[in-house]
Amino acid sequence: MIEAIGLTKRYGAKTAVHNLSFQVRPGTVTGFLGPNGSGKSTTMRMILGLDQPTAGQVTVGGHPFRQLPNAPRQVGALLDAKAVHGGRTARTHLLSLAQLSGIPAARVDEVLGVVGLQDVARRRSKGFSLGMGQRLGIAAALLGDPQVLLFDEPVNGLDPEGILWVRNLMKRLASEGRTVFVSSHLMSEMAVTADHLIVIGRGQLLADMSVTDFISANSADFARVRTAPIDPPRREKLTAALTEAGGQVLSEPDGALRVTGLPLPRISDLAHEADVRVWELSPHQASLEEAYMRMTQSVVDYRSTSDALEGFQPPQQQGWGQHQGYGTPAPPVVQEAPQQGWYAPPPPGQNPYATTPPAGAPAPAVPAAAPAPAPAAPPVAPAAPMAPAAPAVQTTKRDSNEDAR
Prior knowledge:
34% of the residues lie in helices and 20% in strands. By secondary structure, the protein is an alpha/beta fold. Among the domains are: 2-214, Rossmann fold, CATH 3.40.50; 220-285, Elongation Factor G (Translational Gtpase), domain 3 (Alpha-Beta Plaits). It has a 6-stranded mixed sheet, with helices on both faces. The protein has a 4-stranded antiparallel sheet with strand order 11-12-10-13, covered by helices on one side. Helix 2 (90-101) packs across helix 3 (106-115) and helix 7 crosses helix 10. The chain is elongated. Belongs to the ABC transporter superfamily. Residues 309-405 are annotated as: Disordered. Keywords: ATP-binding, Nucleotide-binding, Transport. It holds the Pfam family ABC_tran.
């Protein structure tokens, strides 16, 4: 078992990990999640004794890693798949690790077969792809047949077959009673691999619970209802009926309704009573990715956008003519879904607001870039400069041929 108590690590004025406490128990695959820069790699390095904690302690099997007798036989780890001398072959690399730990040479050939590298065992690792390097790193972690295993992004660079193999490998290791601690940014993979989650943000613990409990605690299930888009009055009629029955109705960007507080059979009955034909009535259960994004959206240090639609907030529904100054905008039917950090953006071709901003919003990049092609057009437009282009190309070719001769 891995146990951290009040773990803290500072690098000068920067605190990478602050007062972090958790347990990684044997028999389960424990996922270690957090945004970039949250302190996951630093925590793993402190577990393995590569970094000394500023405060607190972390133990493996009740002892600090550096005090474990013959630690490679008890703990296996993959932190960096590139931590291999490129001039060594895969077998030579593993053989050197085995000799340092008193592991028989026969075990090297065994793990090469386990990870599928037996055919390239005598090739130098500098010619390995990222996926092959990951397999070699996993082989090194399994070399001592340890009871505790740590993997940092183990499926990076692997093809689908390799990802499935790693998933099954981790589950098998956990079923044997081993402690398996895995850090990954692939939420879909963690959802089907991990049994328990430890989530940190900015070096502090955010969650320590099972995958099922984590999704339930950080998301809300709802029903998606869709009516005919060409019949707004009936959509409004259904909205009123659902609201009167105690449901909460929000509008999604594509025109569907998000309904909470009512079970699906009750929604179906209300639609039937209101004589509204429903095109879609489906339950929505949040994924691990959605729950994770919702929990960590306030602790993300590096974001990919800073525009007015950050967070993919659905724009206020208004008529196209309002932005252009023509006509009267159609009034919104219901309140729009609140901003969620995990909310998927609508397809660009179906959202006119991707190119036309709401009233009062700062000038976006699209209008600002519109005048740019105008200055570039005059040099290209005249046909006269194009005539001498042919001799220039021919001259270049003759020079090239002369150089070749």
